[in-house]
């Protein structure tokens, strides 16, 4: 049985773990908190990232922040805290390019290799194996990991030199940010015209303007249901800032992104940072003078 390391057992990592376990892999997982749910799936919980690296040469990582990657790779119990000869880390998080490059160098300094990667898709898409995985870096390493990604999805792509996958993810999330904001704007417009929100969602869902994000979030917006988090407002806002920064450095015109970003920031300021990003609708409703459904358990950012 081939052993695979999986660091980051969250909304994306857990369904990835189940897929790999069901495919016959011995999955060694690491999470800073309790991992009993991972063990219930049949995975083996490890005590540190380095403990994972001691037992396998192939590690997949999906974590929330630059600091988490630095800890996982370069920390006292990180993967690169000891020899990494022959080890490959496929890093799939949306993080700053500088931090990814620095941690790739740390891996290289210990004889290992890191692939830059990203996932475009919602957790249910990961479960269904329809999420898109993008990888970049040394092509031979990508080919070595091809069977792993074949197990995870029917859609994975080699994008080129290290960093190309992250750049592709910024393009993907630029579309996501615009799609979600456009959905919220449309529903607020419909509400001002007196249209029934649920009927409006049903009518638009499969029409020419429908999208994956519309299907995932329009109904939630209409009902004010954003406690079940697929991706938080704060998480997408982080990516929007990164996209805007990159665009500014390149001199790229970004009129759409620059005009929707303040609505995400307003949603965070109003306490919707930790709930699902569908809650950006609250910022559009507020601007339009519309009532906002307040579900129980709204979390403050």
Describe the structure.
This protein is α/β, with parallel strands linked by helices and 301 residues long. The protein folds into two domains: 158 residues, Rossmann fold (3-Layer(aba) Sandwich), CATH 3.40.50; 122 residues, N-(1-d-carboxylethyl)-l-norvaline Dehydrogenase, domain 2 (Orthogonal Bundle). The chain has 13 helices and eight strands. It has an eight-stranded mixed β-sheet, with helices on both faces. The longest helix has 29 residues. The protein is globular and about 65 Å long. The model has no long low-confidence stretch (mean pLDDT 95).
Task: Describe the structure concisely for a colleague.
53% of the residues lie in helices and 12% in strands. With 301 residues, the protein is an alpha/beta fold.
Topology:
Layout: E1 3-7, H1 13-22, E2 26-30, H2 36-41, E3 44-45, H3 49-55, E4 58-61, H4 66-74, E5 88-91, H5 97-109, E6 113-120, H6 123-127, E7 132-136, H7 139-152, E8 156-158, H8 164-192, H9 197-205, H10 212-223, H11 233-250, H12 255-272, H13 280-288
Parallel strand pairs: 1-2, 1-4, 2-3, 4-5, 5-6, 7-8
Antiparallel strand pairs: 6-7
Helix pairs in contact: 4-5, 8-10, 8-11, 8-12, 8-13, 9-10, 11-12, 12-13
**Rg:** 20 Å
**For this structure, what is the CATH homologous superfamily of the largest domain?**
NAD(P)-binding Rossmann-like Domain
- In percent, how helical is the residue content? 40-55%
- In the CATH hierarchy, the architecture of the largest domain is 3-Layer(aba) Sandwich
Regions with pLDDT < 50 over 5+ consecutive residues? none
User: For the record, what CATH class of the largest domain applies?
Assistant: Alpha Beta
């Amino acid at each position: 049985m081939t052993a695979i390391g999986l660091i980051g057992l969250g909304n994306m990592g857990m369904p990835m773990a189940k897929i790999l376990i069901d495919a016959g892999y011995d999955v060694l997982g690491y999470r800073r908190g309790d991992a009993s749910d991972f063990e219930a799936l049949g995975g083996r919980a490890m005590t540190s990232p380095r403990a994972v690296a001691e037992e396998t040469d192939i590690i997949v990582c999906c974590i929330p922040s630059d600091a988490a990657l630095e800890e996982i790779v370069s920390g006292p119990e990180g993967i690169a805290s000891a020899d990494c000869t022959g080890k490959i880390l496929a890093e799939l998080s949306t993080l700053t390019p500088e931090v990814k490059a620095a941690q790739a160098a740390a891996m290289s300094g210990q004889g290992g290799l890191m692939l830059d990667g990203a996932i475009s898709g919602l957790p249910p898409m990961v479960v269904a194996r329809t999420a898109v995985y993008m990888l970049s870096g040394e092509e031979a390493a990508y080919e070595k990991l091809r069977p792993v990604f074949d197990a995870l999805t029917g859609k994975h792509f080699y994008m080129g030199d290290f960093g190309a996958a992250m750049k592709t993810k910024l393009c993907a999330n630029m579309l996501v940010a615009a799609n979600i904001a456009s959905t919220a704007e449309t529903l607020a417009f419909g509400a001002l015209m007196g249209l029934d929100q649920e009927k409006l969602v049903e009518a638009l869902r499969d029409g020419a303007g429908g999208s994956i994000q519309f299907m995932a979030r329009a109904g939630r917006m209409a009902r004010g249901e954003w406690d079940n988090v697929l991706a938080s407002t704060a998480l997408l806002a982080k990516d929007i800032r990164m996209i805007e920064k990159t665009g500014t450095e390149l001199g790229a015109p970004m009129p759409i992104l620059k005009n929707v970003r303040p609505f995400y920031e307003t949603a965070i300021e109003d306490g919707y940072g930790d709930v699902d990003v569908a809650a950006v609708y609250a910022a559009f409703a507020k601007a339009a003078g519309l009532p906002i459904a307040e579900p129980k358990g709204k979390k403050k950012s």
